[in-house]
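U., I forgot to send this yesterday:
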Amino acid sequence: MTITRQQTTERARGTLVELLGLEFDEVEPGRAVAHLAIRPTHLAPNQFLHAASVIALADTCCGFGALASLPDGAESFTTLELKSNFLGTATSGVIVCDSALVHGGRTTQVWDAVVRHRDTDRTIALFRCTQMLLYPKT
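Result:
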């Protein structure tokens, strides 16, 4: 199921996603792309991009991708595990996350994501997460 930009905005209302200002460019089965315009509140006390800001972007991007990729009967998901390797940082501009489904099972999904700085195309982080798929209780 493809999720529209309006649907992502509605789902994000009142959540950390809205607070951080994450915005979605594409959400379709197997892929999601989102971006974050860096504000001073996204920085750590050392004035570089806070790791938590990058992880929030990547995990949320993979999460909306997981939502769009749920198998028949599944109603939601939750993150089981995540890992991030930081290769760079930024202090301004826009960072973009491109996520892709690498394993889509009946009970789990594994997602990879790359976070880059939009203007310089420098890689900020490599990210991988495992999502547990949730089914209605019987």
